[in-house]
Amino acid sequence: MDALIALLLIVLMLVVLGSGLWIGLALLGVGVFAMELFSTRPVGDAMVLTIWGSTSSWTLTALPLFLWMGEILFRSKLSEGMFRGLSPWLNHIPGRLLHVNVIGCAIFAAVSGSSAATCATIGKITLPELKKRGYPDHMAVGTLSGAGTLGLLIPPSIIMIVYGVAANVSIAKLFMAGVIPGILLAMVFMGYIVVWALRNPQQVPAADAHVGLLAKLYEGRHLLPVVALIIVVLGSIYSGIATATEAAALGVAGSLALAAIEGSLSWRKFYEGLGSAVRVYCMIGLILAGAAFLTLAMGFIGLPRHLAEFIGGLGLSPFALMLVLMGFFILLGCFLDGISMVVLTMAVLLPTVQSAGFDLLWFGIFIVLVVEMAQITPPVGFNLFVLQGLTKREITWLARVSMPLFWLMVSFVMLVYFVPGIITWLPGLMQ
Amino acid sequence: MKSALLAFYRLLGLLAMLAMVAALITVGLSVLAREASWDIQGLDAYAGYAIVAALFLALPITFQRGEHIRVTLLMGKLPQRWSNALQVWSLLAGSALSALLAWFAVRLVWISWSTHDVSPAMDASPLWIPQLAMALGCIGMAVACLDALLSHLLGLPFFDTHAHGEAARIE
Fold first, then answer.
1. Transmembrane ranges (chain B) (predicted)?
2. Minimum CA–CA partner of B28 in chain A
3. Fewer Cβ within 10 Å of end Cβ, chain B: N or C?
4. CA Rg, chain B, in Å?
5. Domain ranges in chain A?
6. Number of DSSP helices (H) and strands (E) in chain A, helices first
7. Residue B79 covered by a domain
8. Which tens digit of pLDDT belongs to each residue from A59-111?
9. DSSP β-bridge partners for residue A157
């Protein structure tokens, strides 16, 4: 009977989501349906109380503020400065300026919480510059698409806040857990560019004019604003001076100051950035509200517990379970966005994950990595949508050039499974 | 009528933006207060109220600009008649659910007000005040959904889809 209810609800969920109902409302609707049918609790009052409780939290305040920070920086001249500061240094590595994509994304990821924003901000400057110099499109776009996903892994990260709130894991620790995997994954992408460049030297255009060391250092000054912001945001979290929420507020203030100093801050831009941040937060918030109630409803009917018992009864090894979950997420990622994936998973799978003995901090980074892959798999992959806007290319072509990066991420997940210290070492050093 | 409704959604959106600024100021104040050892009680709770207001008050304008996400895979693939049916279903279900939410959000304000419910945190504010913003936003959303449904059935435009040039920058 329980299995039948579970199956019914899962099918209903997929049908309702597939029908095109707005995702937040769909989660809410399935929650109402499940609770009306399978429990005797009064639904409406429980619904608003849960939603009120989950959306009025101090911890969640970090999310809109980081979104706002990203919107301000997207409208600033930060990415131009980064291109000028980085490119003189990268001319002599095999693959040359293609590395600007990866390093640029990694640095921007350290001040932005979102993968699509990272991709758009870096891409709007690197893609035209790389094209002008004659770099092959498939490498320029492919590496950008993969490296853009670092926006999720390198803190601050919207998806980590969503996971942290849902799974009750410290957001500061999650942020720190993402640092080393983020840097390593960026190095993996750079290694890929180097290997490609050594094998196809004829496709790599000539270097820009040679620049002396002093000139390089002088050009490097364009990186100072972003480095200062990173120190303010991540430094304050790591040192324990500020919580994630406070660091987000410092980040917004810092970005506003930065935009004001470089002269790109106007009332109009301020208004647009704020409006955009509020609407994006509203979109995410509606999903969070729906998911909070769905989690409650699922808890009442005991579905997560039964699922955990069922999966526990299969006797899968943790490795096999991880593979199954990864496959399931990649499949889900083909038609759902990352935030909905995380909240749905948390509503249903949390007890399973706990009883399988996964460390919740490790699992958070694992989910982020898998969501990253989902960002670049068609038909629904938000980085692909961003790139479509930037390049006007077919989504199938974009997906194809991103594929090598996708496989690199799959192997990276294997790496963090066998060497979990990559994730857990740095947060372990915090008090 | 149409333009009055749109002005209503925009007004709520504007209030949501003010709420976001309020959240920033509140969190900023709490950092300052700690560094300077001022004693301001309950700032944590105020930040929470501010983001609730930002979230719910922005619901209608976000909806009107087509920025709430949905799975459009099936709708895009089906012939016109069927995707039209799915749109009507989505708007019907959306209207029903947001009306339900609005009803109970108003009820929550009423219960908090009549039982003199105060915040359990340090601020001890009467909860009906911040909950009012949530109720107002939910009412706005229900109105917007009904507006969209009626507009769709009458063949009038509702969604402002060209407004969001950068809709993809969401996560």
1. 12-33, 45-63, 84-106, 126-150
2. A249
3. N
4. 19
5. 57-265+302-428
6. 23, 0
7. yes
8. 999 999 999 999 999 999 888 889 999 989 998 899 999 999 999 999 999 99
9. none
Q: Which residues in chain B are contacts of A379 at CB distance < 8 A?
A: 73
CA distances from B54 to A58, A122, A284, A355, A423 (A): 14, 29, 12, 37, 34
Q: Do A335 and B73 touch (CB under 8 A)?
A: yes
CA-nearest of A241, A96, A115 to A172 is A241
Chain A residues near residue B31 by CB distance under 8 angstroms: 242, 246, 249-250
For B94-127, b/e burial (b = at least 16 CB within 10 A) is bbbbbbbbbbbbbebbebbeeeeeebebebeeeb
Cis peptide before A156 (omega within 30 of 0): yes
Question: Which of B27, B49, B58 has the CB atom closest to A249's CB atom?
Answer: B27
Residue B35 contacts A where some CB pair is shorter than 8 Å: no
Is the pLDDT reported for residue A337 higher than 90? no
List, as one string, the DSSP characters of B77-104: HS-HHHHHHHHHHHHHHHHHHHHHHHHH
Phi/psi for A59 (5° steps) reads: -60, -45
Are A94 and A198 in contact by the 8 Å Cβ rule? The answer is: yes
In a domain, B160, yes or no: no
The Cα–Cα gap between A323 and A188 comes to 21
B71–A114 CB contact, under 8 Å: no
Q: Is residue B161 part of a domain?
A: no
Is residue B165's pLDDT more than 70?
Answer: no
Q: Is the pLDDT of residue B38 over 90?
A: no
Distance of alpha carbon A291 from alpha carbon A62, whole angstroms: 18
Q: Where are the alpha helices (DSSP H) in A200-317?
A: 213-219, 224-230, 236-238, 244-261, 267-301, 303-313
How high is the pLDDT of residue A213?
Answer: 85
Handedness of CA B29, B31, B34, B40 (dihedral sign): positive
Domains: count for chain B? 1
Three-class SS of residue B126? strand
**B62-101 pLDDT, tens per residue?**
999 998 988 887 888 889 999 999 999 999 999 999 999 9
B171 within domain boundaries: no
CA B57, B61, B65 angle in degrees (round to 5)? 155
Q: Tell which residue, B171, B74, B67, B62, has the closest CA to residue A338.
A: B171
Condensed to tens digits (0 to 9), the pLDDT of residues A162-197 reads 999 999 999 999 999 999 999 999 999 999 999 999
- Which residue from A45, A65, A281 is facing B24, i.e. has the nearest CB? A65
Domain assignment of residue B113, given as a range = 2-154
